[in-house]
Amino acid sequence: MLELEHLTLGYGERILLDNVSARFSAGQLVALLGRNGSGKSTLLRAVSGLGRILKGSIRLAGRELQTLPPDKLATIVATVTTERVRIANLYCEDVVALGRAPYTNWIGRMQAEDARIVARSLGLVGMGSFARKTMDQMSDGECQRVMIARALAQDTPIILLDEPTAFLDLPNRYELGALLRRLAHDEQKCILFSTHDLDIALTLCDAIALIDTPHLHVLPTAEMARSGHIERLFRNDSVSFDATTGTVRLKQ
Ligand code: ATP
Ligand code: MG
């Protein structure tokens, strides 16, 4: 569904990912891990067609990204960022309806089918009763769900999320992770999300993609936990992390 082929990304002389290849399938929830500044957002931006590819290619649903016109790309990849939409007077259902833009006619008029998809998308994220609530009246967790509903309404096989659990408390982080897992499995989406929540990645994801500059390791979660990569990358002079038990230890 999503293939990186000998992909090199970076800015100017600085290479973040060098000649990386990986493949992600439909029905898979994948966490993208890496230290601050390792290139998670850069990779997600590149896959969503916004970044520059220095070498190699990205294939989406069998088509090369660079050959896809923007309107076609919008039917294959939906992106959710941490930017929070807080516009008073904008109903949740209006935000979700934005996801239908690639399909609505030139005046942007919604057909009955679009309205049905908007309602279904809100229902899938458990926000059906919020349709006529305005975006300024909601918590961060609720907003994040609405933004995911917008991505679902876009009806794409691939969904990318950049740190969707930032700003959420612990129960809501797990709830959001569980929602993404359910959507990947039940709706057969290929979902790739960046996160600093190692515990959520290790407990809820099917696979983990780990940026080990300038490499990208992609392994099923249990194998990644045993691989030692996470411990090596996420330790410093103050803390160490055990990926098999999910425990953090402070060094003396
Ligand atoms: P974080 O966990 O902090 O979100 P990240 O893994 O998402 O980090 P990126 O935002 O992809 O990291 O940035 C990777 C590196 O590239 C950083 O060192 C950043 O300063 C640099 N960078 C990001 N955007 C640009 C840009 N437009 N031009 C030049 N350098 C950039
Ligand atoms: Mg980032």
Automatic annotation (TrEMBL):
Domain ABC transporter: 2-246
InterPro entries reported in the protein's UniProt record: AAA+_ATPase, ABC_transporter-like_ATP-bd, P-loop_NTPase
SUPFAM superfamilies: P-loop containing nucleoside triphosphate hydrolases
Pfam families per the UniProt record, alphabetical: ABC_tran (PF00005)
Keywords associated with the record: ATP-binding, Nucleotide-binding, Translocase, Transport
Name assigned to this protein: ABC transporter ATP-binding protein
CDD domains, A to Z: ABC_Iron-Siderophores_B12_Hemin (cd03214)
Lineage: Bacteria, Pseudomonadati, Bacteroidota, Bacteroidia, Bacteroidales
Known role: Part of the ABC transporter complex HmuTUV involved in hemin import. Responsible for energy coupling to the transport system.
A Gene Ontology molecular function term of the record: ATP binding
